[in-house]
Design a protein that fits this description.
PPDK_AMP/ATP-bd; 29 helices; Rossmann fold; 4 domains; 36 strands; nine-stranded mixed sheet; about 850 residues; D-amino Acid Aminotransferase, Chain A, domain 1; about 35% helix; Dna Ligase, domain 1; alpha+beta
């Protein structure tokens, strides 16, 4: 090896013992104190200066500085309290900036425990920093305090570093004991050495070695720092209230997150016992994420402030949580951190996401995590479970991330190995969903690009029961404490609303192909949205989502097939027989058929305590949050008609509010009408100027082949990008954001996110029908982005719609390869168009 590839420790005896340092070496000193480490650092720094090395000091510890100001060419101060990802990314960036052959001194890694509370994450940090330093031919000094870390952490560091050196101080003398010296060897290298002046005297005699090592205090197997803190916290249960509160807040900072409105709620409602109970069900370390926190604190509010109103009706939960550190460990230990770092840059944000997503779907979990996951699966037995995203920013004030990340049902049938593999794959799918395009756009558009979006996971037992070979709850849905989507001026918006389905709740949170949910205003639950009598059956739920235990998967069944099964309660709570349809069937000669059922929930809403309970629940939660809330729930009934509600999720509902009343246009202005409707809009009282209208012609769109319909969606995405900063209205047939082109335009929300207004227009001839999707993930996106929504039921007596007002203007569709779509998409520059809405009168007018 070229002598120029070698470097000195600053002590000739140590250089001789380890055959000097090599460019690329990471040197980890295991010491009893930072003072001892500083002794080695001082000699290394002095030598580096003599050799004209470029010296970098990375300062992050709480201990006294290792180098005085000016002693290094550059000192970087990095805030460890911001968390693993922020810290590791900052270190990666500075190493990249400093380039090749820089020499580094890092503070003691043990000080990171004060901020990360996890030995595992220190090992992870070293695993990502060390290879990059090696790659750039640097020499870097690190330290860890002896007996402060688990064997696993030491093993991880030993595996990754080039040199691991023990430094002992015994009766005033210093000894070094090389444990690992990579890529060189001598017969005496791994003996202890006494430091005497510049010399390192090798101790080969067994008597001296035994005497030395017997005088050194060695700890046994050490618990992870995380476990030690929780062990001490249990002891605090018997201490004074002030001590318990201080301990609770420490644990909350480790599991709930930094100070925020949500953490304030948690502090008000959680006791130390509550936090310890949550910790007992956490796998790994780190935060449990926003979805888990929202569910837990909402349940605590109902329990504590409900004064026995809710407890008789609440189904208990026995959820588990995978901490955010498991997500980072999965990435680090599978060797993807460098790719992750590239993806976090502005240039690589979208570019590297697909590759990282593919990797996340095929990684391996550490053995300790696998053991814990298996224990959790043994606990649940063969009960179906759902694996849900619970990122740090999810379900918080300001950012709901509704529907951006995956949730995966596990029917949980088969052999233990088969069930375990399905669980692991479900976790991989949730992790991979962090790289979904919609999630990336959401983060970018919400100004969260540089925020750590740490992914935890919530594992819940699926609520419901076995019905033959299927599993499902009787009811599921979404509840909102504020009902801004009113269709009748007499509706009490503060009473809240439900978006209700029979079976699993997938249909309540997504816009489902060919199906409609039940919208319930909780002031008068039996009131129905305005529609013609013959439409009630058409625009109701026809299929039911269930878990097939036989097929071991999520599937859908026809309503009639589900109702043929013994539901273990009164089916008339949910469905009534449709005698009008039966009469028409008989007129057509089908006299042998029984009357089909229609899911109208009439008995549930009119003869049970369910709607009143849900109204009270939403009101209490909104009052405590001091903010409108959005919940997800299930409900199950007994033969006697008793029921239990399972509160699955609660988050702040981002609404635009009512605003001040708007003076509606006078009769002379209405002559320039574009459209006017009664009800069926959402967005409060507004007067909005409209500069552009982007109109998708229903007949032309219908004539497109399926591939052409997707091309229309992608073209609108380009138009959306061009409309940023402008006031634009998007109008199209059927449902925006559907996955089925025959029902509307299959557009992603990120492809319409810059619009000020979107309108869904019905077309009876073409079979397009808007869906009043209040409460769905699509709705969440609209209200968070401040997009006004309207459904135009063209042809109804109370609807006036004159698309010619727009179509008679020149088409400004001037995008590459857009010529073939000019008969489908029409972009018109308006001349002073305005949109007026009034909640009280339920009028919406566009001139």
């Amino acid at each position: 090896m070229d002598i120029r590839d070698k470097a000195s420790t600053g002590m000739s005896g140590i250089d001789l013992a380890i055959d000097k340092l090599r460019l690329g070496d990471n040197v980890v000193w295991q010491v009893d104190s930072v003072t001892d480490y500083k002794r080695m650092v001082d000699r290394f720094v002095e030598q580096s200066k003599r050799d004209n090395r470029r010296l970098i000091y990375v300062r992050f510890g709480d201990h006294e500085p290792l180098l005085e100001d000016g002693a290094a060419a550059t000192t970087y101060r990095i805030e460890a309290q911001k968390g693993f990802e922020s810290f590791a990314t900052a270190v990666h960036t500075l190493i990249e900036q400093e380039g090749r052959k820089a020499f580094y001194v890092f503070d003691s890694l043990t000080d990171l425990l004060q901020h990360w509370h996890s030995d595992l994450m220190i090992g992870n940090f070293f695993k990502v920093a060390c290879p990059f330093l090696y790659e750039l031919d640097t020499v870097a000094y690190f330290a860890i305090i002896r007996n402060a870390h688990t064997y696993g952490t030491i093993a991880s560091i030993r595996e990754t570093t080039q040199l691991l050196l023990e430094l002992y101080r015994v009766e005033g003398s210093y000894y070094i004991h090389p444990l690992k010296v990579w890529n060189r060897y001598s017969p005496t290298m791994f003996f202890p050495h006494l430091i005497r002046g510049e010399e390192a005297v090798c101790i080969t005699a067994s008597t001296e070695s035994a005497e030395l090592f017997s005088s050194i205090q060695r700890g046994g197997e050490r618990l992870d720092y995380w476990d030690i803190l929780f062990q001490k916290a249990r002891e605090a249960l018997a201490q004074a209230p002030e001590k318990r509160e201080a301990t609770k807040r420490l644990l909350m900072s480790m599991m709930i997150g930094p100070e925020s409105r949500m953490s304030e709620l948690c502090d008000r409602y959680f006791t130390l016992e509550d936090i310890l109970a949550i910790a007992s069900r956490e796998i790994g370390t780190g935060f449990i994420g926003g979805k888990s926190v929202g569910m837990l604190v909402a349940r605590k509010v109902l329990e504590r402030d409900g004064q026995e109103r809710f407890s008789p009706y609440m189904e208990p939960h026995d959820s588990y949580y995978l901490g955010t550190d498991v997500y980072y460990t999965y990435i680090v230990q599978n060797g993807w951190w460098k790719l992750r770092t590239k993806q976090r840059t502005s240039e690589g944000y979208f570019r590297h996401a697909p590759e990282l997503k593919e990797n996340l779907l095929r990684g391996k979990f550490p053995e300790k995590i696998r053991e814990k996951l298996m224990q959790m699966l043994e606990y649940f037995g063969q009960s179906p479970i759902i694996v849900r995203s619970s990122s740090l920013l999810e379900d918080n004030f300001g950012n709901a991330f509704a529907g951006k990340y995956e949730s995966v049902f596990c029917a949980n049938q088969g052999t233990p190995d088969e069930r375990y593999e399905a669980l692991e794959q479900a976790i991989r799918v949730v992790y991979a969903s962090t790289m979904n395009e919609d999630a990336l756009h959401y983060r970018m558009n919400r100004g969260l690009f540089e925020r750590d979006e740490q992914m935890a996971i919530l594992v819940q037992r699926v609520s419901g029961d076995h019905y033959d070979d299927h599993f499902f709850p009787h009811l599921a849905g979404v509840g909102n404490s504020s009902n801004l989507y009113v269709w009748d001026k007499s509706i009490d918006m503060d009473a809240g609303m439900l978006r209700l389905v029979f079976g699993l709740g997938t249909r309540a949170v997504d816009r489902t192909v060919g199906d409609y949910v039940k919208i319930v205003g909780l002031d008068k639950p039996l009131r129905s949205p305005l529609m013609h009598a013959e439409d009630y059956r058409k625009y109701s739920q026809h299929d039911v989502d269930v878990l097939s235990l036989k097929e071991n998967t999520l599937t859908s069944m026809r309503l009639e097939d589900v109702l043929d099964v013994d539901l273990k309660t009164d089916k008339e709570l949910f469905a009534t027989q449709d005698y009008e349809t039966m009469q028409r069937l008989r007129e057509l000669g089908y006299s042998d058929r029984s009357a089909p059922h229609m899911l109208d929930f009439q008995k549930l809403l009119g003869a049970t305590e369910f709607p009143g309970l849900m109204r009270d629940m939403l009101a209490l939660l909104a009052g405590v949050y001091d903010y409108p809330v959005d919940i997800e729930f299930t409900a199950n009934f007994t033969k006697e008609g008793l029921f239990k509600v399972n509160l699955l999720q609660c988050r702040p509902l981002q609404t635009r509010g009512l605003g001040n009343s708007v003076e509606m246009p006078t009769a002379d202005r209405v002559r320039n009408l574009f459209f006017e409707i009664k009800g069926n809009f959402m967005g409060g009282n507004v007067r909005l100027p409209i500069d552009y209208v982007v109109y998708v012609r229903p007949e032309s769109y219908l004539a497109c082949a399926e591939q052409g319909k997707y091309a229309v969606a992608r073209q609108i995405g380009l138009i959306n990008a061009a409309m940023k900063g402008k006031s634009a209205m998007l109008i199209g047939p059927g449902r925006w954001g559907t996955t089925t082109p025959s029902l509307g335009v299959p557009i992603r929300f990120s492809e319409l996110s810059n619009m000020s207004v979107i309108c869904e227009v019905s077309s009876v001839e073409a079979g397009f029908m808007p869906e009043l999707s209040y409460g769905s993930h699509f709705f969440q996106d609209l209200v968070e982005s401040g997009i006004f929504y309207a459904a135009i039921f063209d042809g109804r007596d109370d609807v006036k719609f004159q698309p010619a007002r727009v179509l008679e203007r020149p088409n400004l569709l001037l995008f590459p390869h857009s010529e073939q779509l000019s008969d489908v998409i029409h972009i018109a520059k308006t001349d002073g168009m305005e949109l007026f809405s009034d909640i009280v009168s339920q009028r919406l007018i566009c001139l």
